Amino acid sequence: MAIGLSLLTLPVVANDAVPAGIAASQAKVQTVFDCRSLKSAPPAIAPDQWFQRSVWATHCYSYQARAVRVVDDDIVTLSLVRDIEDGVESDRMYFLNGPTRSLVREGGSMRFQLGASGELASPASPSALVEHLSELYRLRFHGEGRIANRTAVVVEFAPQDGLRYGYRLWLDRVTGIPLKRALLDDRGAVLETFELVELTPPELYDGEVVLMEPTSSAAVGWSAGWLPPGFVVQPLMALASPEDSPRRHKFYSDGLATISLFVEPLEGEGTLRPGLHRLGANYAAVRRIERGDETLQAVAVGELPPGVLMRVVDMLEFASEDAEDDSAS
Asked: What range(s) does the MucB/RseB N-terminal domain occupy (predicted)?
């Protein structure tokens, strides 16, 4: 059932409009968010409007924050730095407990491509993303809250089938920035939370933010033979290993939930027992496949019910004609 879409309409610029000062060819620019439009945007009222505003906020605000990620008894504390310079987003994440780790990502963390596999499509606009999600989830308000000393509107995504989990998002009432995210199982119990506990005053970028075309990845000779409705293959995620081994990675999303699918030779330290493995709030479904003289290991990882991931990895398809001769052990 679709949401009544009285949508926020803010201009997302197509590929052929490259803002001044961006040193890139037109062919490499996918989408441009004109963050200045937020200054005159109408207020968000309905849940779908709040979610669209959060998509814009994810691209258009700079800030620093402290956060916690909680799964069962495991608590991870993090420092986050989000910046925008010359229209390009960058995110830096530092882990403050456990082993010393950090992650750096440039070019934006939130994009969902609706185009079919093999097509180079621009990321879905916020309104198109909401329309897609409304076919998979019931979007509704779930009250208000106070997160990082800021008032938040709580928006819930309740799945319309048993093939995915639910989500609850706490969105800053002033900016729309996501302040907290909770993953919910089929009974509504919280599986994982990610929450900002401290936030510097967010700064709206006074210009256009550019999402560049992802780097092309090596083609792979296999694909997911079955996926839950609404999942679409996403760019940038079919990666060879640093050692140039035959390892390959594909990434699928329905706009909220994700599935990572790996296929690699069964050897070395990466060997896993076939079946299901718990990874925090996620599961990994593992299958072994015999192809000629080689044994492959297929792994599906995601924020989905374990039976769904097992079905994904069981129905893996190969491009070659002898795919029907493959067998799982």
From this structure: 48-200
